[in-house]
From TrEMBL:
Its EC number is 4.1.1.35. One of its GO terms (molecular function) is UDP-glucuronate decarboxylase activity. GO terms for cellular component: Golgi cisterna membrane; Golgi membrane. Keywords: Decarboxylase, Glycoprotein, Golgi apparatus, Lyase, Membrane, NAD, Signal-anchor, Transmembrane, Transmembrane helix. GO terms for biological process: D-xylose metabolic process; UDP-D-xylose biosynthetic process. Belongs to the NAD(P)-dependent epimerase/dehydratase family. UDP-glucuronic acid decarboxylase subfamily. It is a single-pass type II membrane protein. This is UDP-glucuronic acid decarboxylase 1. Pfam families: GDP_Man_Dehyd. It catalyses: UDP-alpha-D-glucuronate + H(+) = UDP-alpha-D-xylose + CO2. The keyword Membrane applies.
Amino acid sequence: MSLPMGARRAAGGGSMNAGGKVPLGLKRKGLRIVVTGGAGFVGSHLVDRLIARGDSVIVVDNFFTGRKDNVAHHFGNPRFELIRHDVVEPILLEVDQIYHLACPASPVHYKFNPIHKTNVVGTLNMLGLAKRVGARFLLTSTSEVYGDPLQHPQVETYWGNVNPIGVRSCYDEGKRTAETLTMDYHRGLEIEVRIARIFNTYGPRMCLDDGRVVSNFVAQALRKEPLTVYGDGKQTRSFQYVSDLVEGLMRLMEGEHVGPFNLGNPGEFTMLELAEVKSIRMLRFKLPIIY
Ligand SMILES: O=c1ccn([C@@H]2O[C@H](COP(=O)(O)OP(=O)(O)O[C@H]3OC[C@@H](O)[C@H](O)[C@H]3O)[C@@H](O)[C@H]2O)c(=O)[nH]1
């Protein structure tokens, strides 16, 4: 079957079964956890879940794309702390687990401000912290490590088809390097690590100007503007709701397996299909607040 270039879809139901048999929260209650990028779209939802199950959470965020508003409802909670900090600088914290999310994920943002340094130096700094305090480290990598994949859907053993010099390379190659560093620290220094490869995710707290396709289409539909389908619209993507992703990240952290694991949705749309009113409605039923 010939497939459109640029198709990115998680293989096998998103492979979210790592640690799936461990009931969340039972053994892990009361941990000290740092979430880098915790004031961002995905990070803030993760923080909500961790706080809700009784953990103490330190959010580290430089507010490049994250917003205080996303975590303001935790201000005053003694189990919550917010630190303005860029992960390209080292930081010393006493924690049990590190969720390393810090990195702008929308092409609009990272093309404007290339983030190779965030991925490489930032990941190195957080791995250094994991080593120093003996914390378990989870890297949020991306489906973009598969580049313009020639295999469809992508399984985790596929090495990808990646351009080292393109406009999106700072992200793709930055995350690939971050994965390499993570595995090196795991093999060489016996740091406990987990790697998640996140596919296209949507939900509340995405910025309207995020630039990714779901928020663009919803914003355009609400404004009754034409939807901007890029290229021939035959490229495909899978879309997962943010709470499903957060569930997957927590299961991965609590489970026994290093990964990498694809976290995504096995279903897929072409961008032309997504632009149909029916598809937008299908996604919108879970999109009560986009702002
Ligand atoms: O308005 C738009 C925006 C985007 N698109 C198209 O929609 C597709 C999806 O693009 P998006 O910008 O939503 O994002 P991508 O799927 O390429 O990457 C996204 O998901 C994986 C994450 O790891 C990345 O961080 C995230 O940016 C692309 O083919 C793009 O060209 C449109 O057709 N119209």
